[in-house]
């Protein structure tokens, strides 16, 4: 079996990513390959004066300055979650050969994964209500920023994208939830082009939540970032990126296993996702050249993911990109950063064989029993 | 999957956890009578607020409804979602093992996720410092747990998708479930939404001057704004063949849906964006404006929403506007659950034959134009065939679901 059916293929024509490695796919892949990050500030900017939890490495975006990408106007009411996703979207659009015209905006939409929106913005808004002179004397400009759809709606407003605009909360698998939704929206004709990805913000509130929850494992590290992909249907030959493809998103499957059925059932559910993705994409385990592995850092969860993958790949052992070991726990953003690293790996010109091993896999396991797998294929021709 | 003909999608079960009733029978009875569920706020200390009423669910005891989910480990929004889903599945006559073994998942919408968890965490932060927050509580803060709660309660192995598209999120969820079943990727989807009354949401709308003093009065010339509210709504969506082979009661057929994004303003609704959403929903369902018998309005009860929504409806429907009412007159604004409750009311309207009322309207705002039938007071007997369920949101996220009488 080889090749994809045209009707189920979705092309990734551009992407933008920002993480502790900096801005762009090249620095991300260099970090993943070398296992080292550029020197950061230990999370000082993201903590914004709040104390850091002891023993947790904080791997924030170095010198994050949204105005460098977005201009100064209107940024003061935007959370870090929102500006991270806006910057990733900006980078994704900037990477296209030419921008889409105004006539395409009605069929262009935004689909982002985020589990809480900005936890900091939410908590601080609550706090303002308790501390203000009257409990309702909160900042009206900050109110929309509590919502999970704030990032996606800001990206749409910035570019007048009036097509489908969705925000999905999927915990660890948020990015795969968003990719699956976007793929479905394209294949059902609800949009012609979507900016899709996911975001996670590092801050004191989330850092302490992770620390107190005890789910960070033995070498705790927390990261942040966002990756956004421009996805289009395979047949869309008239767009600005016609013919150009960084990768095909040939399948994206997500599933669930109730936790009371135990971790082995979760591993089995992931195996089922991978098998389904291979079936939908028309690939076999041996076609997988590289796996961009999940960012599940909790005790035992990495092992669950590896077990599920092993089961589905039936003895085949592709190269593994360990994104989370470098970037830290990036929760909602993890799947998007994994996919960005995979594409950057391919862009780097990693060795290709005779048509085999041209496929890549992104896998993710949440702490609540959710699992997901995306199957990607390298474009057959360069450029 | 694209080689197969699209499958029809049936609604076979309905579940409501609301301030006007728990279970679809109690909910429907209240809607038909035009009974409201607005009371003095109990879920947070409302001292200092000028407006202190909300649509809270006071008699919700999760253990009365849940069979599997350990409620004490989940936030209130997740509890609402799981309970509404359990009620819907019982209503649909699915046995637990049969549903669990089928290709079934959930899609649930929310505006504020687990806001009550955030409320409690903030109180801990203020009292004990940021290092004093409870880790077990913090682990309940993620909004994705709302759909995860549904899958956990029902033992579903398909996907658990939580939509964070604010106050139209249930319609997004229903639309997504519809697409999955229609295309053959799933056979059953539990779709709906949940939200919980909380201090931040109340304060935010209060600050915008958008909260009514006594009751929510959509379309009324003396409207005062919204009433913050809570609850969980769930629908069992199922392939037509599955429903028929089970001998299930079919309340309604999902005919299609439409989505647009205004992309103009973070909080203000936009006539053009809504009108285009209506057109997209009609096109997707293959229906014309003159076939629509009823519009279940977003109808929040703010001047901005009412005037924009009615103007958009006039733009699409022209001279003949179908009856249009707002069940927020009874429930208040249940946020992410709102369009889920709208869908429940639409399904019952189609199945039993009535038009849900705008219970609290006294004198229709003349600024909304002539011949606006907002079904004042109590439900009206009717035989609607095709109805339209509106959901709009901050961020310009418009979503409209079309439902039809089963035939």
Automatic annotation (TrEMBL), chain A:
All residue ranges annotated as the Beta-ketoacyl synthase-like N-terminal domain in the record: 77-209
Family to which this protein belongs: Belongs to the thiolase-like superfamily. Beta-ketoacyl-ACP synthases family.
Record-level Gene Ontology MF annotations: 3-oxoacyl-[acyl-carrier-protein] synthase activity
PANTHER family from the UniProt entry: 3-OXOACYL-[ACYL-CARRIER-PROTEIN] SYNTHASE, MITOCHONDRIAL, POLYKETIDE SYNTHASE-RELATED
Name the UniProt record assigns to this protein: Beta-ketoacyl synthase N-terminal domain-containing protein
Keywords: Transferase
GO biological process, alphabetically ordered: fatty acid biosynthetic process
InterPro entries, per database record: Beta-ketoacyl_synthase, Ketoacyl_synth_C, Ketoacyl_synth_N, Thiolase-like
Keyword Calcium included in the entry's annotation: no
Segments forming domain Beta-ketoacyl synthase C-terminal: 263-345
Pfam families: ketoacyl-synt, Ketoacyl-synt_C
UniProtKB/TrEMBL annotation, chain B:
Keywords: Acyltransferase, Transferase
GO molecular function: 3-oxoacyl-[acyl-carrier-protein] synthase activity
Ketosynthase family 3 (KS3) domain boundaries: 6-405
SMART domains: PKS_KS
Pfam families assigned to the protein according to its UniProt record, in alphabetical order: ketoacyl-synt (PF00109), Ketoacyl-synt_C (PF02801)
Record GO biological process: fatty acid biosynthetic process
InterPro entries: Beta-ketoacyl_synthase (IPR000794), Ketoacyl_synth_AS (IPR018201), Ketoacyl_synth_C (IPR014031), Ketoacyl_synth_N (IPR014030), PKS_Beta-ketoAc_synthase_dom (IPR020841), Thiolase-like (IPR016039)
Residue spans crossing the bilayer: none
Assigned protein family: Belongs to the thiolase-like superfamily. Beta-ketoacyl-ACP synthases family.
Protein's recorded name: 3-oxoacyl-ACP synthase
Species the sequence originates in: Streptomyces toyocaensis
UniProt lineage: Bacteria, Bacillati, Actinomycetota, Actinomycetes, Kitasatosporales
């Amino acid at each position: 079996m080889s090749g994809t059916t045209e009707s189920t293929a979705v092309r990734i024509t551009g992407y933008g990513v920002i993480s502790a490695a900096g801005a762009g796919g090249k620095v991300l892949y260099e970090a993943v390959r070398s296992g080292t990050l550029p020197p950061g500030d230990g999370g000082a900017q993201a903590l914004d004066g709040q104390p850091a939890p002891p023993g947790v490495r904080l791997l924030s975006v170095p010198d994050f300055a949204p105005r460098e990408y977005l201009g100064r106007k209107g940024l003061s009411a935007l959370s870090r979650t929102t500006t991270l996703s806006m910057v990733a979207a900006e980078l994704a659009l900037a990477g296209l050969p030419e921008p889409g015209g105004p006539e395409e905006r009605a069929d262009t939409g935004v689909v982002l994964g985020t589990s809480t929106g900005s936890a900091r913005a939410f908590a601080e808004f609550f706090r303002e209500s308790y501390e203000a002179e009257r409990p309702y004397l909160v900042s009206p400009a900050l109110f929309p920023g509590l919502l999970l759809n704030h990032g996606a709606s800001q990206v749409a407003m910035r570019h007048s994208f009036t097509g489908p605009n969705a925000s999905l909360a999927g915990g660890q698998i948020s990015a795969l939830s968003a990719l699956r939704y976007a793929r479905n929206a394209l294949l059902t004709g609800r949009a012609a082009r979507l900016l899709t990805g996911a975001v996670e913000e590092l801050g004191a509130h989330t850092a302490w939540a992770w620390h107190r929850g005890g789910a960070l494992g033995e070498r705790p590290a927390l990261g942040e970032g966002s990756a956004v992909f421009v996805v289009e249907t395979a047949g869309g030959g008239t767009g600005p990126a016609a013919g150009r493809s960084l990768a095909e998103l040939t399948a994206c499957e997500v599933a669930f296993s109730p936790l009371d059925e135990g971790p082995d059932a979760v591993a089995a559910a992931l195996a089922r996702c991978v098998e389904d993705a291979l079936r939908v994409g028309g690939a076999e385990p041996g076609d997988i050249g590289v796996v961009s592995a999940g960012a599940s850092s909790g005790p035992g969860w990495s092992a669950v993911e590896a077990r599920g993958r092993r089961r589905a790949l039936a003895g085949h052992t592709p190269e593994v990109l360990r994104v989370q070991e470098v970037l830290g726990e990036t929760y909602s953003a993890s799947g998007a950063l994994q996919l960005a690293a995979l594409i950057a790996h391919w862009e780097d010109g990693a060795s290709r064989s005779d048509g085999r091993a041209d496929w890549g896999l992104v896998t993710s396991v949440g702490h609540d029993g959710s699992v997901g797998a995306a199957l990607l294929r390298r474009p057959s021709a360069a450029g | 999957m694209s080689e197969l003909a699209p499958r029809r999608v049936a609604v076979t079960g309905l579940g409501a956890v609301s301030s006007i009733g728990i279970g679809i029978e109690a909910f429907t009875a209240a809607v038909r009578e035009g009974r409201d569920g607005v009371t003095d706020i109990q879920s947070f200390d409302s001292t200092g607020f000028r407006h202190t009423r909300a649509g809270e669910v006071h008699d919700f005891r999760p253990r009365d409804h849940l069979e599997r989910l350990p409620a004490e480990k989940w936030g209130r929004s997740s509890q609402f979602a799981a309970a509404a889903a359990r009620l819907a599945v019982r209503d649909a006559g699915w046995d637990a093992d049969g549903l669990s073994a089928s290709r079934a998942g959930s899609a649930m919408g929310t505006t504020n996720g687990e806001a009550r968890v955030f409320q409690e965490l903030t109180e801990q932060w203020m009292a004990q410092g940021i290092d004093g927050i409870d880790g077990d509580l913090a682990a309940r803060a993620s909004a994705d747990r709302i759909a995860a709660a549904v899958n956990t309660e029902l033992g579903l192995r398909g996907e658990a998708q939580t939509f964070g598209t604010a106050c139209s999120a249930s319609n997004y969820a229903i639309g997504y479930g519809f697409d999955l079943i229609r295309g053959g990727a799933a056979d059953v989807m539990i779709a709906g939404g949940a939200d919980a009354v909380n201090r931040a949401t109340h304060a935010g709308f209060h600050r915008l001057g958008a909260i009514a003093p006594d009751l929510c009065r959509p379309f009324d010339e003396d409207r005062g704004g919204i009433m913050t509210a809570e609850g969980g709504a769930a629908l069992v969506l199922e392939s037509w063949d599955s429903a028929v082979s089970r001998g299930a009661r079919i309340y309604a057929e999902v005919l299609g849906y439409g989505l647009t994004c205004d992309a103009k303003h973070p909080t203000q609704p936009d006539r053009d964006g809504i009108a285009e959403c209506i057109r997209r929903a009609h096109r997707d369902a293959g229906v014309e404006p003159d076939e629509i018998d009823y519009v279940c309005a977003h109808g929040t009860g703010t001047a901005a929403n009412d005037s924009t929504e009615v103007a958009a409806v006039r733009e699409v429907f022209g001279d003949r506007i179908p009856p249009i009412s707002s069940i927020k007159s009874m429930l208040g604004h249940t946020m992410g659950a709102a369009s889920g409750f709208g869908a429940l009311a639409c399904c019952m309207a189609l199945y039993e034959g009535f038009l849900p009322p705008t219970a609290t309207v006294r004198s229709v705002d003349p600024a909304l134009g002539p011949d606006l039938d907002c079904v004042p007071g109590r439900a009206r007997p009717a035989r609607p065939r095709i109805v339209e369920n509106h959901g709009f949101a901050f961020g310009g996220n418009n979503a409209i679901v079309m439902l039809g009488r089963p035939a």
